[in-house]
Amino acid sequence: MKYDDLKLTAQNLRKNILTMIHEAKSGHPGGSLSAVEIVTYLYFKEMNIKDPHDEGRDRFVLSKGHGAPVLYSALMEKGFINKELMGTLRQVNSKLQGHPDMKKLPGVEASTGSLGQGLSIANGMALAFKLDKKENRVFALLGDGEIQEGMIWEAAMLANHYHLDNLTAILDHNGLQIDGKNNDVMTVEPIDEKFEAFGWHVIKADGHDFESLEKAFEERKKVTGKPALIIAETIKGKGCSFMEDKASWHGKAPNYEEFCMAMEEIGGGLNG
After folding, report:
1. Ordered structural domains, the chain, with CATH
2. Where is the Transketolase N-terminal domain (predicted)?
3. End-to-end CA distance of the chain, in Å?
4. Contact yes or no for 38/170 (Cβ under 8 A)
5. DSSP string spanning 135-200?
6. Tens digit of pLDDT for each residue in 36-92?
7. Spatial distance between the Cα atoms of 40 and 17, rounded to a whole number of angstroms
8. Around 3, how many Cα atoms within 13 Å sit in the side-chain half-sphere?
9. Taking the model in full, what pTM does it have?
């Protein structure tokens, strides 16, 4: 898929995200919107995943499970799930739970939401593929507030110990978490030096630029014998001016006026 097509797909993902969260009157727009280009690139360019049931597919683990709307949007645009589900986000017994539930929805590889656990799940998948001598790759999307969790660092240590070069973690580095700036709550810097000390290959990218993401993933392919982390610099709430870089939009749904404004800014208004 070309860059222009990826941009159009990303635009559709943002509209889906806002529609789901607005109709649910609940959800996490900020961190879903910041990860749009990352998830778009993975699902429509990088990953081998034409069928959510194909054993040969690459695996994606949304470790920052509260960003579920961005994953659901990608699965809709891939045609894995029906867009008619869009109005059911966070409803009782819905397939679109507030955090991903692998038992309810095809294409969800892991039930996540308890922060810090997704990288360990991805480790298990990657190690299993190694032991079975399979070519499947595993990608895990982390939040930068999430890496304050100790379990992340245990997983980082294990991934290097077992030389999991079929594992790539992507950090949605928007600098904010529910309580404010990461650096005010509990600084996670220097992230690159910390992961390098754990034996990872670290790559930096602009998380909203497809060319930058492509260069990062191409560099990753050249690295063998170790796991890799792509630190993708992003903006929380990207695409909606009144949400951008504001921690207050971590877990708040837009009202009707805000929804209309956001859809207009993303492009084309409600029916565009």
Report:
1. 3-266 (3.40.50.970)
2. 10-260
3. 22
4. yes
5. ---EEEEEETTGGGSHHHHHHHHHHHHTT-TTEEEEEEE-SEETTEEHHHH-----HHHHHHHTT-
6. 999 999 999 999 999 999 999 999 999 999 999 999 999 999 999 999 999 999 999
7. 13
8. 8
9. 0.97
